[in-house]
Amino acid sequence: MKFGVVIFPGSNCDMDSFYVIKEVLKEEVEYIWHQDTDLEGFDCIILPGGFSYGDYLRCGAIARFSPVMSAVRDFASKGGLVIGICNGFQILLEAGMLPGAMLRNTSLRFICKFVNVRVENDQTPWTNHAHKGMVLRIPIAHNEGNYTADEETIRRLEGEGRVILRYCDEKGEVTPESNPNGAMQNIAGICNREFNVFGLMPHPERSSEDILGSTDGKVIWDSVVEYLNQKA
Amino acid sequence: MEENSEQVRYAVYITPKRGVLDPQGQAALQALKALGYGEVDDVRIGKYIILSLKGDGAKEERVREMCEKLLANPIIEDYEVSME
Fold first, then answer.
1. How many CB atoms lie within 10 A of CB B15?
2. What is the CATH number for B53?
3. Does residue B17 lie within any of the structural domains?
4. Alpha-carbon gap: B1 to the closest alpha carbon of chain A (Å)
């Protein structure tokens, strides 16, 4: 199986993602420049965190028009796995590949800390190694993670089991206090209807090794590997 | 730019949609109240974009298209266009 990590101008979690795939998972991985349009041979595309195009205009608003993004869209429409982490999630929202939008954190602060998120659906390519209700300790690092969408969209996401991760306390209770950024329904991660596109604000690539203080993010990578192995 | 090419300027105002939380506006509202401006009911903070267009391509319809595609995010923002 082969992973691809897209590099936009301003991406800064590209090397972390690459490192985890190569050194922790021991799987094949390549960088993909934002001008490239050939995704032949890849099984999973990672849109990494960072500040693509300096977050100018709106986070992800310029990156979504990068040449690589039309290829990513085609790739996803054929069932390919696409994960957008933090800025990658914002890009997927701007591209319309996931519904909703991001507002500034209610605190108006850039928040960089470990948070707890609860797995809400364990029947996805991204969470099949986790179980429903499992609490993961994974760091966030963002200024715009305040997820918003209209009522109908929220209803649909909830009804279709597409809210994958929700901010919670260490016991797994979803409370206003455990919501770091004001996101509606404490939403930290969602999928498209087909579940092959996943956007999340927490950084699993920063929590896949003991030395970084948590290995809880690894369950997401292990799930992807499991899913792709089953498919092969 | 050619010397006698005509230019048209459009102003684009982008504001948070009604009903969409505006954390910046809320913070400014609280600050104004703290300063004693109790008459302020609401603050909404947006963007003001000035577009200079070549005269022959300067169609408001095109500017609206630019707003829909890139300048505004219709999910969370409203926009207004006016010729300057």
1. 18
2. 3.30.1280.10
3. yes
4. 26
Domain ranges of chain A: 2-231
A66: distance to nearest CA of chain B, Å? Answer: 13
Q: How many Cα neighbours within 13 Å face the side chain of B75?
A: 20
**Is B1 a member of any domain?**
no
Give the tokens for residue A181.
């950024």
Number of domains in chain B: 1
pLDDT in tens, A10-57: 999 999 999 999 999 999 999 999 999 999 999 999 999 999 999 999
Q: Answer yes or no: is B53 within a domain.
A: yes
Return d(Cα B14, Cα B76) in angstroms, integer.
10
Min Cα–Cα distance to chain A from B3, Å = 31
Q: Which residues of A touch B (CB under 8 A)?
A: 57-58, 61-62, 65, 94, 100-101, 103-108, 146, 148-150, 182
For the whole model, what pTM was predicted?
0.94
A30 is catalytic: no
Q: What is the ipTM of this complex?
A: 0.85
For the A2-231 domain, the top CATH level (class) is: alpha beta
Question: Domain span at residue B11?
Answer: 7-83
Is B77 a member of any domain? yes
Question: What is the dihedral sign for C-alpha B14, B15, B16, B17?
Answer: negative
Residue reference for tokens 């595609």: B69
What 3-state DSSP class applies to B1?
Answer: coil
Residues of chain A with C-beta less than 8 angstroms from the C-beta of B21? 103, 106, 146, 148, 182
